[in-house]
TrEMBL record:
This is GTPase Der. Associates with the 50S ribosomal subunit. Residues 24-187, 201-374 form the EngA-type G domain. InterPro entries: G_ENGA (IPR031166), GTP-bd (IPR006073), GTPase_Der (IPR016484), KH_dom-like (IPR032859), KH_dom-like_a/b (IPR015946), P-loop_NTPase (IPR027417), Small_GTP-bd (IPR005225). The lineage of its organism: Bacteria, Bacillati, Actinomycetota, Actinomycetes, Streptosporangiales. Pfam families: KH_dom-like (PF14714), MMR_HSR1 (PF01926). It comes from Nocardiopsis endophytica. GTP 2 binds at residues 207-214, 254-258, 319-322. HAMAP family: GTPase_Der. GTP 1 binds at residues 30-37, 77-81, 139-142.
Length: 457
């Protein structure tokens, strides 16, 4: 209905303007044969990048997960970006321009034994015009003999040349120190459960009044096994319960709000919304309960929307399945198709708190949602996937220009958040297309995912 579309548009608008926080991106630029790929391999400490530094060689992978002194960053090998037949110097300069657009730090590699070439000079001009920090690597300094040659690269005017040997590893520590000095201040590490987040995983049991929340809670808990855990939550009288299911202890958030009856009083609507959002804030996954004995209500949809906005994992539980007849079942499926199509990624369980039907399916569904919520796709895998996708279906031309997607990283988990580094604005339709394909190919069942872009003008 209307509400869905309005929310969708608002979210898209908010996302379009957003500059996502990501791990720092370091792009390696330089003309062919200076040793870019060897240096990338050296930094990665493995032999994964294609070493052959030949123009026009298409590489499968352009971006890698790397780290220096415990600080993660994305290392981008720009070697594969040159595609036009406009001459080597020009295409290397173009490549450097893209790199500077997308990266936080540019690692400019020059062959010290050859000295400054036309292509190096062209790259230098491009890099000077950007305000991106540049670290200059004077490569192939395998011994003291080449040190003087390295110092001649001061003449480029992009700062101190750092003498390295990608082949032997000489000087790469100093080089990475220089690169890391330009990283933005370290933020909370993405992907780890923050301190104080250890312990049982946290479930919010949600749904409008009378859908069967307290019946389900009672059935799951079997009263005697319940441990009441008073929590200093945002809701004054929030009470969490630890319940063991399938051999694992789970924390059910704000069960006081479920077990009490006052929520059903007139005017409790606003109160319920506030309570739901404060429970969601502390939860990792939401089980949204719906009552199949009645048509899906606006209030049910509102709860689902609240979960979507919270970015939490979600399981849809259709309760009172014992009341269902053929007729009602037919209409229920129609209602679900019509009103819940935007959360078709959420696992669905058809249960009865009264009879205990399919109780055993609840925990696996919750675990699926949490696993998706936590999931991280390695940068290399993500980019080989993206490369194929974009080759088959390039972004539409906009204002006479075709935006290029340079590479992507997964910036965050809980929920998974992907950032596309682009040279121009991607239409919402195209972003949604990528989101859909991410789901088709990687799953993420039970978790929302987010796709945003980072444009460098
Ligand atoms: P809450 O407001 O969401 O906590 O809902 P309650 O657990 O209080 O349940 C509301 C009503 O639905 C009560 O009369 C329950 O007995 C009934 N109920 C709950 N679960 C089921 C079920 O699976 N089948 C049937 N037939 N009734 C149920």
């Amino acid at each position: 209905g209307e509400a869905w579309e309005a929310t969708d548009e608002a979210a898209a608008a908010a996302e379009a303007g957003e500059q996502a926080a990501v791990t720092p991106v370091v792009a390696v630029v330089g003309r062919p044969n200076v040793g870019k790929s060897s240096l990338v391999n050296r930094v990665l400490g493995r032999r994964e990048a294609v070493v052959e530094d030949v123009p026009g060689v298409t590489r499968d992978r352009v971006a890698y997960d790397a780290s220096w002194l415990g600080r993660p960053f994305t290392l981008v090998d720009t070697g594969g970006w040159e595609t036009d037949a406009e001459g080597m110097a020009a295409s290397v300069a173009r490549q450097a321009e893209y790199a500077a657009q997308a990266a936080d730090v540019v690692l400019f590699v020059v062959d010290a034994t050859v000295g400054v070439t036309d292509a190096d000079a062209a790259v230098t001009r491009v890099l000077r015009s950007t305000r991106r920090p540049v670290v200059l690597a004077a490569n192939k300094v395998d011994g003291a003999a080449q040190e003087a040659e390295a110092m001649e690269l001061w003449n480029l005017g992009v700062g101190e040349p750092i003498a390295v040997s990608a082949l032997h590893g000489r000087g790469t520590g100093d080089l990475l120190d220089a690169v890391a000095a330009h990283f933005p201040d370290r933020e909370e590490e993405a992907g780890e459960r923050a301190s104080g987040e250890e312990g049982p995983r946290r479930i919010a049991l949600l749904g409008r009044p009378n859908v069967g929340k307290s019946s389900l809670l009672n059935r799951l808990a079997g009263e005697d096994r319940v441990v009441v855990d008073p929590t200093a939550g945002t809701t004054r009288d929030a009470v969490d319960e630890l319940i063991e299911l399938g051999g694992i202890t789970w924390k059910f958030i704000d069960t006081a709000g479920i077990r009490r009856r006052f929520r059903r009083l007139q005017g409790a609507d606003y109160y319920a919304t506030v309570r739901t959002s404060s429970a969601l804030e502390r939860a990792e996954v939401a089980v949204v309960l719906m009552d199949v004995s009645e048509p899906l209500a606006e209030q049910d949809i509102r709860v689902v929307e609240q979960v979507m906005e919270s970015g939490r994992a979600m399981v849809l539980a259709f309760n009172k399945w014992d009341t269902l007849d053929e007729d009602r079942r037919y209409y229920l499926e129609k209602e679900i198709d019509r009103q819940l199509s935007r959360v078709s990624w959420a696992p669905r369980v058809n249960i009865s708190a009264r009879t205990g039907r399919h109780m055993e399916k609840l925990v696996p569904a919750i675990e699926t949602g949490l696993a998706s919520w936590d999931a991280r796709i390695p940068t290399g895998r993500l980019n080989s996937w993206l490369k194929e996708l974009v080759a088959a279906t390039p972004p539409p031309v906009r204002g006479g220009r075709q935006p290029k997607i340079l590479f992507a990283t997964q910036a965050d988990v809980r929920p998974p958040h992907f950032v596309l580094f682009t040279t121009g604005f991607l239409e919402d339709n195209y972003r949604r297309f990528i989101e859909r394909r991410l789901r088709e190919d990687f799953g993420f069942e039970g978790s929302p995912i987010k796709v945003s872009m980072r444009i460098r003008e």
